[in-house]
Amino acid sequence: TCKTDGKYVKYINNDSTAFFSTHPAKPFRYGDAVSKKEINTFRKQADFFNFHPGDSVVSIGAASGWYEGAISVFTDSVDYLIQDIDPWLLTQPELDGVVKHFSSLRYSPQTNTFNFVIGKTDDAGLPDGKKYDKILLNNCYHHFDKKWMMLHDLVSHLKDDGELILAGESFSNFYYTEY
After folding, report:
1. What are the pLDDT digits (tens) for 96-121?
2. What is the pTM of this model?
3. Which residues contact 174 (CB under 8 A, 6 or more apart)?
């Protein structure tokens, strides 16, 4: 079921095991509340991203930040900035739920920091003048209204030796031709 609140549709789903669930037993609305037994499935991805202590990482289109929470189990002292365009999915209580859940899966105390920002489909909303070590676009590039403008903006927020990581996209020949 769903109810409309202005331009946003708020879905009500009482299945606590669903990817999107408003059941009170789920620690955050959107994403997998991965168990300690399942968390190692994210280790390869964390190794691939190669986040180092002291890195500042932005994740664009991150919804509740659940994926970054899972990756953070394998990182230390990384400053994560979670970005999304949906102010219903990405709120302080949602991010707090993500951090609490994934901190409980770590084998050592949580040393990462987590903040968030709400952007738009054509403007990431990142703080002016701030530079980051890595910017992750995980399965969100196809949502950008003005792809090249958004990429230009994101690259302007990278440090000189920073990395822009596009992950989870299916880039076919048609896709390359179009964009």
Report:
1. 999 999 999 999 999 999 999 999 87
2. 0.87
3. none
**Dihedral over alpha carbons 170, 101, 114, 88 (to 10 degrees):** 70
Strands annotated E in the chain: 2-5, 8-11, 56-60, 79-84, 113-118, 132-138, 158-167
Cβ atoms of 145 and 139 within 8 Å: the answer is no
Q: Residue 31's CB: how many other CB atoms inside 10 A?
A: 25
Bridge pairing between strands 132-138 and 2-5:
unpaired
Residue holding tokens 């994926």? 67
CA gap 8, 142 in Å, rounded = 20
pLDDT > 80? residue 139: no
Rounded Cα gap, residues 162 and 51, in angstroms: 11
Region for residue 102 given its phi and psi (left: phi exceeds 0; alpha: psi -120 to 50; beta: otherwise): alpha
Give CA–CA dist 37/153, Å, rounded.
39
User: CB count, 10 Å around CB of 43?
Assistant: 13
Indicate the burial class of 102 (C-beta count within 10 angstroms; 0-12, 13-18, 19 or more). Answer: buried
